Amino acid sequence: MGINTPSEITANLQIGPTDEGMVRIYIEGDGIELPMDFDPEEAREIAEEILAAAAGVEQQTGK
User: Fold this and answer.
1) Residue 6 covered by a domain
2) Which whole-number Å values give the CA distances from 6 to 10, 12, 26, in the listed order?
């Protein structure tokens, strides 16, 4: 499955700080729990990538 492949999978997403000084992205879905921990710098890089992707979509769609 790639980035452009449609999917019917549903999942819950939670993002927040841990008590160990990490940023956790936690994904829970049909039979899966996936905690991913990042240091603050990595989390900022991920946030920048998400913002860049949103800006790209806005340019493509004119929104």
Assistant:
1) no
2) 12, 17, 22
What's the per-residue H, E or C state across 12-61?
Answer: EEEEEECCCCCEEEEEEECCEEEEEEECHHHHHHHHHHHHHHHHHHHHHH
Domain span including residue 56: 11-61
Residue 30 lies in a domain: yes
Q: For 1-57, write each residue's pLDDT tens digit.
A: 788 999 888 999 999 999 999 999 999 999 999 999 999 999 999 999 999 999 999
Q: Number of folded domains in the chain?
A: 1
- Tell me whether residue 3 is in a domain: no
The tokens 């929104």 sit on which residue? 63
